[in-house]
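Note on ligand handling. Small-molecule inputs were canonicalized before submission; formal charges were left as drawn, and no protonation-state enumeration was performed. Where a ligand contained multiple stereocentres, the stereochemistry in the source SMILES was retained. For flavin-adenine dinucleotide, this procedure yielded the string shown in the input block below.
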Amino acid sequence: MKTSNGMKILENYDLTKLNTFGISVKAKFFVELNSESDIKSLFLSSEFKNNQRLFLGGGSNILFTKNFDGIVILNKIKGIEIIKEDSENVFIKSMSGENWHDLVLFTVERGYWGMENLSLIPGTVGATPVQNIGAYGVEIKDILEKVEAYEIETGEKKTFSNKECQFGYRESIFKNKLKNKYFISAVIFKLSKKENIKIEYKAIKDYIEKNNIKIKNVADVSKVVSEIRKSKLPDPAILGNAGSFFKNIYVDEQKLEEIKLNYPDVPSFKEENSIKISTAWLIEKCGWKGKKIGNIGMHEKQALVLVNYGGATGEEIKNFSEQIIKDVFIKFGIKLEREVNLI
Ligand SMILES: Cc1cc2nc3c(=O)[nH]c(=O)nc-3n(C[C@H](O)[C@H](O)[C@H](O)COP(=O)(O)OP(=O)(O)OC[C@H]3O[C@@H](n4cnc5c(N)ncnc54)[C@H](O)[C@@H]3O)c2cc1C
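Structure output:
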């Protein structure tokens, strides 16, 4: 162990339990951030300055393909605060190391509307703007007011407005132009005190109808979403995975017509400027749903979820995913993109 500016920097640190795929890799250096004041000290340390860095939250959107030859910074900076409110809205600031679902519960318990459809998504608050998390018809961009972040190069703190985050489908400026350039320290959300039910999404509608549920409040929506997720998605504590491994696909009218010539039943959803095609369906049509090779497979209930049945390496998972990308391309002429960050 080294001590630098009062921080404990560990060497050759095992990351197996810090990524939901359960990949067994090590980091050359490892440090935990426990408060905002730790950030400045960290930025001054030689281990930080002279190595490549990886900020780690819950490790639920990461695939380690090799040992990390740099410093891994585990974010444990906590704190939730109501910073402003009026008769209609409440503004909540959450430090980035908070567990996302704990924050959802904090808001749901107080009757605030906005986060309930995003219940039970694993990971930390700080990672939510990075890929603009989304589920059941809601994305973080719909409720995010501001992001506070420290620039790695200068150590300066900057505030990003919602617009400046340049959100897109599972995208933001932090995944593109500013990748590895900022540490997100806090996120400020704007939630509604007035009822704002969003249950038009098919899976929610079907579940409510089937189980004859009457939605009375925000907690009921959160509960329904949590129940659907538990019934569909494998628990990473039992089966290593990172949720959807691939992104859904957006195509234009012409491409959709082309696919429909051979596959008239292709599920497509018209959105603002383009058409979404279910990647899970493409994968299933290529025969990969539920398929297992060695200790890696695509989940039998969710064709988008790639599973480590135990002991797989990140490189093996990457190779497995490349076979799927190849097959989908041969059959449909569509190049799948990974949602998971390859490290
Ligand atoms: C079972 C399961 C279900 C899932 N369902 C969904 C879903 O419905 N919708 C969805 O969108 N996602 C889903 N995910 C993916 C994942 O939960 C989210 O992307 C989540 O936001 C990742 O958070 P994390 O803290 O684990 O991030 P990590 O995996 O630790 O990090 C992800 C990326 O963000 C960067 N990062 C993390 N924290 C910071 C920070 N403070 N500052 C700067 N960069 C940072 C990391 O360097 C890395 O590049 C699911 C994952 C699992 C395992």
